[in-house]
Amino acid sequence: MSDLTREDAFLTLYTDLAREGPGAAADLGWALSVAATPSAARICDAGCGSGADTVTLAKERPQAQIDAVDQIAHFVAAAQKRTAPFGARVQVYQEDMAALKGPYDLIWCAGALYFLGVTEGLTRWRTALAPGGAVAFSEPCLLSRPSEAARAFWAEYPQITDVAGIRARVAAAGYRVLGEQMQIGDAWEAYYIPMAKRIAKLRPEATGALSEALDEAEREIARWRAAPSEIAYALMVVAPDLPLPHE
């Protein structure tokens, strides 16, 4: 495996993993409830990865029409295979999540909105929402009085704020918060524990770019293990502010 590119090494690491980021099915169920997403909704999974949450959406809303989008062809193919049992009501596309068309009753985005920016992404998606629609997203969040270990974990994301800062970015896009909760512990274990097992499986024959990718992933897991009770995503359910009477 010494001839792999950096991108190929990344994809090799993530092959056969259930998730490409922290999360849990229960969190998605909570978000659907808070957003009051109807049974026959039109839903988008933006930045769907290999489709773990797309499957949960399809199960939670069995009458819904679901679109899932991702820019990485490898993940799109995996998500298409994973969602095939749901038939035509679940469609997976290789597209830019910045250019969603809709209209959607719910846009779900697990750990990927930071690529666009919270304010910027929500602003773009406003026209993709159906009347009464909502966005549910998870965003890196500093808890109160973070330790040095927690700050070190997020060192490569200098834009990170506490939850008040996330609320401010939501408000700047003209949205209001319908509900929020923290993803700590279990949601991260569901991501990192399988990854650690995948690293162990690949390690004996890893060289070159793959070995470097495994090293980088191990360092990330070690930083999480240094402060697991402090590493959090804020899961937010938000909706556009109602227009003023004269608008």
UniProtKB/TrEMBL annotation:
<keyword id="KW-0808">Transferase</keyword>
<keyword id="KW-0489">Methyltransferase</keyword>
<dbReference type="GO" id="GO:0008168">
    <property type="term" value="F:methyltransferase activity"/>
</dbReference>
<dbReference type="Pfam" id="PF13649">
    <property type="entry name" value="Methyltransf_25"/>
</dbReference>
<dbReference type="InterPro" id="IPR041698">
    <property type="entry name" value="Methyltransf_25"/>
</dbReference>
<protein>
    <submittedName>
        <fullName>Trans-aconitate methyltransferase</fullName>
    </submittedName>
</protein>
<dbReference type="InterPro" id="IPR029063">
    <property type="entry name" value="SAM-dependent_MTases_sf"/>
</dbReference>
<dbReference type="GO" id="GO:0032259">
    <property type="term" value="P:methylation"/>
</dbReference>
<feature type="domain" description="Methyltransferase">
    <location>
        <begin position="43"/>
        <end position="133"/>
    </location>
</feature>
